[in-house]
Amino acid sequence: MHIPDGFVSNEIAVATFVVSAGAVTLALRQAKRTLEERQVPLLGVTAAFIFAAQMLNFPVAGGTSGHFMGAMLAALLVGPLPAILIMALVLLIQCLVFADGGITALGANIFNMGVVGAGGGYLIFRALQMALPKNRAGFMAAAGIAAWISIELAASACALELAFSGTVPLDKALPAMALVHALIGIGEALITTAVLGVVLAARRDLIPSRLLPREATP
Amino acid sequence: MSKWGWLLLGGLILAIGLATLLSPFASPWPDGLEKVAEKLGFIDRAEEAKPLVPAPIPDYAVPGVRRQALATALAGLIGTLLVFGSGYLLARWSASGKTKPGPAPPP
After folding, report:
1. Is A83's Cβ below 8 Å from some Cβ in B?
2. Residue B40: phi, psi to the nearest 5?
3. Residue B98 has what DSSP assignment?
4. Is the ipTM of this complex over 0.90?
5. CB–CB of A55 and B37 under 8 A?
6. Cβ of A51 and B19 within 8 Å?
7. Do B18 and A53 touch (CB under 8 A)?
């Protein structure tokens, strides 16, 4: 759902850029304070995987495709603020090198997929975790549902930006975006839980311990 | 190399594999936002807008490469390495210059 040039107004472009730049600055500061040497390769690999997976559009309905976003996965692997950094980096390279997402819409895209997708998705995940059983199934369910919701949140944020830009009325944009991304979100949930399953099986310590189910290590 | 290192190397190889071997088979259909823009009639706005800076590899196809699948695979390879490299350097810069707060992590 990368917004191209021409979809958002100058006002929305500037406003989302300012918020996204603030979030990225905050994330950089936190990383500078807390990021450990051993997390360095994980950040690079997570970013590379998200870039690669975002190239792989899958068909969701007649004549429509979708692709993995990865914000929820990144938030669970490296934490929500580093996940915003990863999303911003992927989006910056996609926009500058591959013309995927407009330069004027970069702030909006980082806002939707980084701030809202990773930040919002993470909060939803934490809330779900409180409600769901504290075991592996509960963890996976929380991750999958939060991944689906992260797509809906990002798509809704995009619809709001289009509406505030005067591009399309909200009562048309919001249901259309929410509906098609409800399907794409299923793919997001499947990929997110599949990758988490592999990571949990191979290296449980990749995931911050406070997020993990309480039962004994498998 | 540690088990940790092998897993990360595996992740990077998987990313490169997806971006080169699988990307030529990605669905060419418009994505969710493009489809909505077509249906609600504002897709023209994107086509009319000129990019501020021309991108070197527009639309994930290396220019000048005749075979579409190869152009896409090369774009995927370049992009994945570029994202990995810049992500790694950004993280390295962030992690640098820290006095270790607790016991050192196992090697």
Report:
1. no
2. -90, 5
3. P
4. yes
5. no
6. yes
7. yes
